[in-house]
C-alpha cells in the first residue's frame, strides 16, 4: 500500500514537474521572441553568434555530408543495379538527402556541435552570475545574450543543411559517376526530372528551419534554466543533446507525414 | 577575434549557404509545377488503376502538367481526376485523356490526345473523352476466358 | 524632524517579509540607509542577508511590506521603471561576475555602451578614469581569466560605478581575498562612496574590516534584525549576539550544534 502510494506520488510529482517545465519553456520562448527586436537592431550581436553556431560547424557538416553522400552512392548503386535501374542513382541520392538526411543529420550534428556549446556558454554565464550582473546593470539578458544566440542558430541551420545536401550530392556523384561509372548525363537529367523544387527542395528547407528553431530553443532554454553549478551545467548540456535529437526525429515524422503524404 | 575577420567569415558562410541553396534549386531540382502558372481541368474515369497524385500528365511523351487531386464521384462511382496543366500548353476542347503505364510495370500517368476543335480548354473544364487504365489482372483473365472459350470451339 | 529623515533616506525597508515557497527567509525587516552612508548588513551564513540585498536591487519582490529606493516603492514598478531605477544602482557580485568573453576594458565600457550614446573617445576616457580609480589602468587589455580574485573584484567595482550610481550594493566584497587586497577593497568602497556622494550597502561577515569603514551596522539573524548601531556602539555592546559575532565565539545565541535531539538519546537508539 505505502509502496504503491509512494510510486503514485512520484509519478504525480514527475508529471507536475514535467508540465511545469514545459509551460516555463513555452513562456521563455515567447519572451525570447518578444525581446528579439534588439538582436536585429544590433546586427553585430547576431552576426557574432552566426559565426559561433554556423561557421564553426561548417567543417563537420561538410565532411559528414560528403561521407553520407558517398555511402548513399555505394548503397544506392548496389540496390538499384539489381533492378537494372542504376541510372536512377541520382534521384535516389538527391531525394534521400533533400527530404530526410540533409535536414535530419545536419540537425543532429548542429545540436551536438553548436547547441551544446550555446547551452554551456549560457549556463556558465548563469553560474558565474554574469546574467544577474547584466540584469542589475539594467540590460536584459534575454535581449542581450539569449535572443542573438537563438537567432544565430535559426539562421545558420537551414544554410548548414543546404550545404550538407549539396555536399552529399557531390559525394554521391563522385562514387556513382566517377568511381563506379554510372552515366553522367543520366545521373543529372534523371535527378532533375524527378526532383521538384517546391515539393522536395523547399520542403527540405522548411524542415531544416523548423529543426533550427527547435534546437536553438532547447539549447538556450536549457542553458538559461540550468542549475547554477558545474554539475548543473553538464547535465543541461546532456539534456540539450538528448532533447534536441528526440525533437528533431519526432518533428521530422510529423512534418514528413504532412508534406509527403500520398493521394 | 576581431570584428572584420568575424564579418568576413560570416559573409563567406552565408554566401556558401545560399550558393548551396541555388545549386539545389537550379542544378538538382526543376520547377515543373511552379504555382500560379497552371490551369486545372477535370476528367472522370471508370478506373484509374494505380494512378497517384502528382503523377505526370504527358502529351506526346512530353510532361505538360501533374495530377492535382483524385476523388470519387459518389453518384456515378467514377474517379474524378484534376489535371493541373502548365499555362504554356493549350489544348483543344475535344482533347482525350487516358491512363497509361510507362513500360510494363512502370509508373502510371495521364496521356493527353489533342483533338481538332477550334476552342481551347479553360480552367474548370471537363474532358469528355476518357479511357480508363488497363488493369493487368483483368486483361489476363479476359485472355484466359477467351482461350477457354476458343478451345472447345476449335475441337468441333 | 520626521520629514527631514525621510528626505535624506535613500533606502527604506518597512516590515519586509520574504519566503522561498514555504521556507520563510525574512520575517519583518525594518531598515533605513541615508545618503552618504556606508552600511553593513552582517549575520551568519544563510541568515537572509543576501536575500535582503536582492530585494533592494529589485531582483526579488517582497512577499509583504515595502521596499523603497529614492522614494519609489519597488513592489509597484514596471519592468521598464525597474530598469530605469537599476541604471542608478551599481552592484558588486561576490566573485565579480565579469563577462568572460570580453577583456577588462570592454567589461568596464559595457554599461556605458549599453546605456549611453557617447562617442568612442569619451567612452575610452571614462573607462580609463574608472580603471585608474581602482588602480588597474595598466590591466585594460587583459582577459578576466588572467586576473587574480582581488583584481577581478576591483575591475567589477570599476564597472559597477561606470554610470556614477546613487546606490552601491556589495555582496560579500571581502570573501576570499588576501589581507592586502582586502584592505585595498575596503578603502576603495569608502573612497568611491564619498566621491560619488552615494550610499553603499554591503553584506558581509567580515566584522573587523567592516567596523573600520562603515557608518552603521545591522545584524540579521533568523530573518529579523537583532541588533544595530554605529561601529562604536557595536564594539561596546553587551548584546550576547553581537558579542558572539564580534569576538567570534563558537557558541552563544548562534548555536554550534544544528538542532538535534540530545546526543544520549541518539546513542541509545531511542530517537529514529
How would you sum up this structure in a few lines?
With 156 residues, chain B is α/β, with parallel strands linked by helices. Chain B has two domains: 1-30; 38-141, no CATH class.
Model description:
The complex is a heterotrimer of chains A (263), B (156) and C (272). Chain A is mainly α and 263 residues long. Chain A has helices at residues 2-34, 37-41, 43-53, 58-80, 89-127, 130-136, 141-180, 184-194, 197-225, 230-259. The radius of gyration of chain A is 22 Å and the shape is globular. The model of chain A has no long low-confidence stretch (mean pLDDT 91). Chain B is of the alpha/beta class and 156 residues long. Chain B folds into two domains: 1-30; 38-141, no CATH class. In chain B, 29% of the residues lie in helices and 32% in strands. Chain B has an eight-stranded mixed sheet with strand order 7-1-4-3-2-6-5-8, with no helix packed on it. In chain B, a hairpin with a 2-residue loop joins β2 and β3. With 272 residues, chain C is an alpha/beta fold. Chain C has a single domain, classed as Rossmann fold. Helices cover 39% and strands 24% of the residues of chain C. Chain C is built from eleven helices and ten strands. In chain C, a hairpin with a 2-residue loop joins β4 and β5 (72-73). The longest helix of chain C has 18 residues, at 179-196. Chain C starts with a helix and ends with a helix. Mean pLDDT of chain C is 84; it is low at 1-6.
Descriptors:
heterotrimer; A: 263 residues; mainly alpha; 10 helices; 87% helix; 0% strand; globular; B: 156 residues; alpha/beta; 2 domains; 8-stranded mixed sheet; 8 strands; 29% helix; 32% strand; elongated
- Write out the CATH superfamily name of chain C: P-loop containing nucleotide triphosphate hydrolases
Largest sheet of chain C: 6 strands, mixed
Largest interface: A-B, 35 and 31 residues
Helix content of chain C: 25-40%
Domain count of chain A: 1
Q: How many beta-strand elements of chain C?
A: 10
How many DSSP H or I helices of chain C? 11
Poorly predicted segments of chain C: 1-6
Shape of chain C: globular
* Gyration radius of chain A, rounded: 22 Å
Strand content of chain C: 15-25%
Helicity of chain A, as a percent range: over 70%
Low-confidence stretches of chain A: none
Please report which band the strand proportion of chain A falls in: under 5%, 5-15%, 15-25%, 25-35%, 35-45% or over 45%: under 5%
Please tell me how large the radius of gyration of chain C is: 20 Å
